[in-house]
Amino acid sequence: MNRSMRRFLLRPLRVLLAGCLLALVPGCTSNPRDPLVVLGPWTGKEGEAFEAALAELDDGTGRRYTYEGTRSLRETLVSQLEAGDPPDVAILNSIGELTEYARRDKLVPLAEESAERAYAPWSPTLLVDSRRRTYWVPLKVDLKSLVWSKEGASSADPKWCVGMASQATSGWPGTDWVEDILLHQAGPDVYTRWATGRLDWRAPAVERAWTTWARLLGKRSPASVEHSLTTSFEGATGPGGQPRGLLGSPGFDCTHEHQSAFIRYVYAGKDVRVEPSARYLDGRPEERDTFEVSGDMAAVFSDDPAAQVLVERLSSPAGREIWRAEADPAVRPLFPDPAGLPPTTFTDPNEQEIHSLLTSGARTLCFDASDVMAPGLRDAFHRAVLEFFRDPSRRHLASLLGQLETVRGEANGESGGDRTFRPPEDICASPGG
């Protein structure tokens, strides 16, 4: 799509901002206003593509946007909220955190135009102050129930790559394993009860997911365990500072990797293929078309009406097309509903496979369980998988699950205290809602 066509598509939205938003902003003058601040998780090429899309949205609107990308998103946002200077729009991948902010009156409910794009399971409505409303909308999404493998590697006896390090959130590659196994072994209903705090962590289905993970990984030497615990999920750094990916990193004698769709930026152009994870997880045949997903959701933290307009534009077909056109194929965003977008020409067969699975190959989509949980429980889950990876004995697992159950009970107010967290109810849905 050329620039003139993009501007034509966005012209109806620009009208909303014409004349300094006189209809929406009392006292607006011709003086330049501070730019809207957008805080998000994308850095590197992903951040550059999103910034370029924002620059296109700047054109002719009279209002400018500033993007702040960080890998330490939660810590940055918490410090800004504590300082009384939150961003106008923040893009988070945790429904648990978003729910917490909504119930603490930190979020502004979305305007109707954006709320209509609150696709399930990424954007469940919340009951806050006796009113059910929508507080965030997915901008981009990822498919998580995937396995990547070296071309020609046998699936009969996979050797698994595992890199658990990820700055402040180390451990999530392990929680992804446990979640995906539980989803395929126990099904969406049990998965939902567990993710939303209504199932004991010591339940047989939960314990089986952990022990299945240990069995699939097989026996590992102490040196191999430490190597995995201290190696980034991106693998070693190659020429030009680019990550090699675990399948191409020295020190990993492995053929398969369990990882989300986003990792395609590492393997683009390499002899690596992707397929659904179900066949590897010792799950039920009826759940082979069930997939775990994640997403990056936009929420409004500001009373400035222009923040609502920006979210509406970013989530619109025109805004998505601009973003997709600005991104390199390896980091091209996936969207929750491709309706309204022209057909995509795929140059990477892995990207085409992921797009096909997300849009037509899935029967049920369930949101990432740890990103649904209360932030404190999620963090405890991350730490527990790191400990379990080092010592997967039954006795140690029983202790870890008991500790996680204590954290769950405290969040639910089951130990006599106040309930500190109320998660959304619906985190699984058929594609398209």
TrEMBL record:
UniProt name for this protein: Alpha-glucoside transport system substrate-binding protein
Biased composition (Basic and acidic residues): 416-425
Record keywords: Signal
Highest taxon of the lineage: Bacteria
Residue span of region Disordered: 408-433
Signal peptide (UniProt feature, chain positions): 1-23
Record keyword Zinc-finger present: no
Record flagged with keyword Signal: yes
